[in-house]
Amino acid sequence: TLGVRVSRAAFATLDQKLYLNVWFDGNRDGDWQDTGECIFDNQHKAQSFEWIVQNWTIDPSTIPAGGYIDIKVPTKLIYNAKPDAPAWMRFTLSEQPAVKPAAGLPDGRGPQQPATFRTGETEDYLRPGKQQGEPGQIGIDKTAQTSTSPVNVGDIIEYSVYLTHSGGTAPASTSMVDQLPAEVVLASPPVVTELTPSAAPLVANFNAASGPNGAVEWSGTLSPGAAIRIDFKVRVRYCPPNGVIQNIAVAHQVDGSEIKALADVKVDCTITKPGLDLQKHIIIRDG
Question: Which among 36, 39, 85, 121 could disulfide-bond with 48, CB atoms 3.0 to 4.6 Å apart, if both were Cys?
Answer without folding.
Answer: 36
